[in-house]
Amino acid sequence: MAKQPLAKTLQFEKKNKDMLKLPKYARVQKRPIPHAPVASPYAGAQVPKIVYVSTKSPFMSAVKRVQKLLRQAEKRATAAVDLSSSKRTDRQKLAQVARGQEQLSKEEVFVKATGRAIERALSVGRWFEERGNEYAVRVKTGNVLVVDDIEEDEEAKRKAIEEAERVLQQEQAQEKEDEVKDDGQTAPGQSVDPPAQPLSKSETKKRKRAANALASTSGEELPETRTRWVNMVEIAVTLK
């Protein structure tokens, strides 16, 4: 049996309920998601250490980056611990070790990803989770608000208008023909056609789309941008 994707085990809040519906002639250009600058591995404990993962990020490369950041955190935590000093009692030395261990457990390295890259980030988290005697892992889900640019394709817009007008003209001609038949006025010797069959579902949808297309093109101008929410995962890894 194939393994279930890791992302399927997570729950995300659905926020894109009232997104602006765009006509077919509109193109959406996705902007890159802005990230905070990547901190130096040697920055202090107060600076968040983040590894951003994309769909193209090599798996082991991401793992090694997290390990490097954790090693630097370990060095910072143990730098102030001097067990060789004869000026301190054993109790003071043990207290130093305890403080260093506490500091180390608080300095987390975050693996972050959005959208389709979530699966890869979770794989990185699973790698550390499988080594639970060395690492502690926790996972948090959320959403990130992003901005898309909206561009109009003028040629596609013109074709959409022409197609909509053609369909609506056919509909008007059919309605007039039906009205004449309903009046019962037929020329001498002219046969009476059977009643018109009701429109099929596909034809009804086609006419509705045509009407909506004309309404959208004749209405307000499209906005230049729109916002939407994308799923985000944050995996915190610490040394035990």
Describe the protein.
With 240 residues, the protein is α+β, with helices and mostly antiparallel strands. The chain has a five-stranded mixed sheet, sandwiched between helices. The model has no long low-confidence stretch (mean pLDDT 79). The chain folds into two domains: 6-151 and 226-239, 2-Layer Sandwich (Translation Initiation Factor IF3); 154-181 and 198-224, no CATH class. The protein has helices at residues 59-79, 90-106, 118-129, 154-183, 201-218, and strands at residues 26-30, 49-52, 109-114, 135-152, 225-239.
Explain briefly what this protein structure is.
The chain has 240 residues and is of the alpha+beta class.
Query: How large, in whole angstroms, is the Cα Rg?
Result: 32 Å
Which structural class do you get from the secondary structure elements?
alpha+beta
Please bin the fraction of helical residues: 40-55%
Task: Quote the average pLDDT.
Answer: 79
CATH-defined topology of the largest domain? Translation Initiation Factor IF3
* H-E string: EEHHEHEHHE
Q: List segments where confidence is low: pLDDT < 50 over at least 5 consecutive residues.
A: none
Number of helices: 5
Strand order of the largest sheet: 1-4-5-3-2
Biggest beta-sheet profile? 5 strands, mixed
Form type: rod-shaped
**How many beta-strand segments?**
5
> How many domains would you count in the coordinates?
2
The CATH class label of the largest domain is Alpha Beta
CATH superfamily of the largest domain: Alba-like domain
Beta-strand fraction estimate: 15-25%
Supply the CATH architecture of the largest domain: 2-Layer Sandwich
Distance between the termini: 34 Å
